[in-house]
């Protein structure tokens, strides 16, 4: 389809506009050429009739002779638009055709050309447009003016008919050329459509790389995309290894400092123990963040949210046996999560675990899809019957490391990691009031089409 904003649509409308301009110009030029040809033919015909009358006049010797006539029957029919008149040098009427009877037809008022011929366009008393040709003939030292008029209106009607037929034919040709232009655009741009489909399959997690054969113009682009993917995987792997090496390298001296601080007493030992604990937490946190960033930077992954939630609810029921977890399993048409399975499990697991910790024994879990500005999104809703949060606390708790109740076990980083993963995937996380009386967590994430998982390039 010629979608708005596509290259095919731009080529089609550009070629269609040019075709319209070219065909209209062609129609105008052809009509003008046909009109000029008919006018020239009419003038030549009138010249011939003038020559015939001049010959008849010279042969008869008397300009008033009834034998002076033309064989064309149109000169005998009144109001036909075909007339001839012979006048004297002073303009007096000497002889005329039957069609002129009762008509006051003036002479030609224009100057004669090099051949002694004058021509002019006038209207007769009946509104018929005439082409008039006049020439002077001398007989016995007397000059006579022979005027012949032809019906120009008939010629103009022929031109109008020709113009209409021409534009009908050119219109049909234009439609066929426009259809051909659309077909050519579609065929010529088909490789780009295949490349777009391949990139979409890569983004949806259905392919590990851009595959297929492409013309020489866009084949380098497909190869560059694949090379970029391979390079991205290698860079991520090197960065992950370096961060891991750095973290492991720091753990040993931090452990030494912690042990030394615990072995001694005093203010300095307490300060060293406190600071080394902070350092250890920071190393663990940034190592985890590096791991998450590296994992989510690889394209070509997707996960079945329904199966993950089924597995998580079974685990949480064992961890929190006093909590009833109600999971409404969606139908098979629910789209998959576009991303790493472990990331979805981390987000959903943290949110579900928090709901179980804060609930008073009842937790609900629902999966669905919503259509928004970002397209179709996977919607996960987890609510509980716990104390809930005020609007101010709901905004505050999403900040890094913030905990509203220090008595509940945990570091406060679980929700922080969830928020970071949501940002990485371009999703949305909202905390609202639940109908159960507690907290409602709504998580929106990008979706992928149903299908099997693929491995990223280089793995």
**Largest sheet, strands/sense/barrel:** 6 strands, mixed
Query: What integer is the average pLDDT?
Result: 81
List the quaternary state of the chains: single chain
Radius of gyration: 48 Å
How would you describe the shape? rod-shaped
What is the H-and-E element order?
Answer: HEEEEEHHHHHEEHEEHHEE
Structure write-up:
This protein is α+β, with helices and mostly antiparallel strands and 459 residues long. The protein is rod-shaped and about 155 Å long. Strand 3 and strand 4 form a beta hairpin. Helices cover 50% and strands 18% of the residues. The chain has helices at residues 7-60, 152-188, 190-203, 219-263, 267-296, 305-319, 341-358, 391-396, 414-424; strands at 83-88, 93-96, 117-123, 129-139, 142-151, 324-328, 336-337, 362-372, 375-384, 428-433, 439-448. The model is unreliable at 404-412 and 452-459 (pLDDT under 50). The longest helix is centred in the first third of the chain and has 54 residues, at 7-60. Strands 6, 7, 8, 9, 10 and 11 form a 6-stranded mixed beta sheet that branches. A 5-stranded antiparallel beta sheet has the order 2-1-5-4-3.
In short:
Helices cover 50% and strands 18% of the residues. It has 459 residues and is an alpha+beta fold.
